[in-house]
């Protein structure tokens, strides 16, 4: 990747070339791939699907609304991956928190519904984290098991039926309403994204998460409580997923056992495309959110092109493999 | 520089076993302020285990540790650092994906925004970068760009950062596990200067090395471990390099 970038530009201006060389030296070009991909996909679909309304404002808003819950999950997953953990239980947490929100909203109102739904993520993340560090099982396996458990619990909630939500405040605040012309879904996504960016880049916690993910022994040697950091990273991931569940429940006005079920691959693809390493130590929140938008754009474009769900699944799988291949290659280079 | 009468670090009869292997068996050592002590021994003699026990990475099975005459229990790396013990481990303990100031201040970050900033850990990046530049300057460590991740630096520069961190924070005791193993001639000289600098500032230094040149260049005392026990303890000025090698191979002992 690095070699081709230098030769692809025939005669760049001196400053541009110097900048390129400098970026290449610090291995920084990788982080721009996601924005390049974004622009490329946008232009491609805009041209290919110009008669199918890809660029209409209603379709773009639709893409944004679809990307929002995935972006929120991606922000959480970024922290898990940054700490060299992974959270496979996010989809099931979305489902269970939507059901809990629906149930509590009917009996106890807006505030308790929100808190209870977020409590689902907090609790699942805490269990994931504690089992991972205390029993010393890789988070991959812990969260895989938890995925089964939480999905099962969600299925038992209402006999596989949707639970309708009729609390107007809940519906307006988290996903159904809008502030001026902007959907609350997008506002919440921006808020969570900004929060994630701030924590990762400007707080001690963010640096410690990256340290633990890059080199756990070295982090331990300077006195960082690595167990605590790993638990926090998994709690952040699951809590973000429960917030995504709240957003989805609010947008669709239901809680259902299969909400978020198929989002896991999309979330991981979004995060990895965005420049976060699958092996810890390197992470980008802006990249993850951009990755989520890319995935939603692809989804939308593929539908407009007439691909069915099965084809989309195949496309998503291919994208993940390509993204991981790039990520591995960079790992080897450094 | 005269060493004070109170030892900076006194390790008494420390033992550590891993299953059936006695890595350390009743080892006692003493480090003094303003002195450099070499810790010698063949591979597997127990040098790194001893350093890790002092640095709080391992918990010894028995024995005691005193710092400036006060008995301490070092239960974690964090606690060791609080007691003024800094360590440069053999496997370089730097984080490749962070930049130099972030590494230098890892787990000792400077925060801004008063009490609230300190509570949430709001980083003062500007201050850390400035302090870092100053520290590296003082130690004569030259790094091309502080904003680059450590992975973009050469092996020598990375080692310099790891040592710089220990030197910057090491108030009383600095443990160096083969600090110049991967370095060129000029960089090795720089590291030895850093060690002399520490000594002159009254720090007690323990230097693990396989290189006898370095022992005679900077060390005042040498302690030799063999199969987990102390086999020799000598003043470096009283012995030759050949004597030291003889102690290491077990051809001779003093204790």
Walk me through this protein's architecture:
The complex is a heterodimer of chains A (334) and B (255). By secondary structure, chain A is mainly alpha-helical. Chain A has a single domain (31-333), classed as ABC transporter involved in vitamin B12 uptake, BtuC (Orthogonal Bundle), CATH 1.10.3470. Chain A is built from 15 helices and four strands. Chain A has helices at 2-8, 14-25, 30-48, 57-82, 90-108, 110-134, 139-157, 168-176, 184-202, 204-214, 216-221, 226-252, 264-273, 285-304, 309-333; strands at residues 163-164, 178-179, 182-183, 254-255. In chain A, the strands form two sheets. A two-stranded antiparallel sheet of chain A has the order 1-4. In chain A, strands 2-3 form a two-stranded antiparallel ribbon. In chain A, a hairpin with a 2-residue loop joins strand 2 and strand 3 (182-183). Chain A is globular. Chain A starts with a helix and ends with a helix. Mean pLDDT of chain A is 89; it is low at 1-10. Helices cover 34% and strands 24% of the residues of chain B. In chain B, strands 6-7-8-3-9-10 form a six-stranded mixed beta sheet, with helices on both faces. Chain B has helices at 47-54, 77-82, 100-104, 114-120, 125-138, 155-169, 185-200, 212-218, 241-249, and strands at residues 9-18, 21-31, 36-40, 62-67, 70-72, 85-88, 173-177, 204-208, 221-226, 229-235. Chain B folds into two domains: 1-84 and 172-255, 3-Layer(aba) Sandwich (Rossmann fold); 96-169, no CATH class. Chain B contains nine helices and ten strands. With 255 residues, chain B is α/β, with parallel strands linked by helices. The model of chain B has no long low-confidence stretch (mean pLDDT 88). Chains A and B meet through helix 10 and helix 11 of A and helix 2 of B.
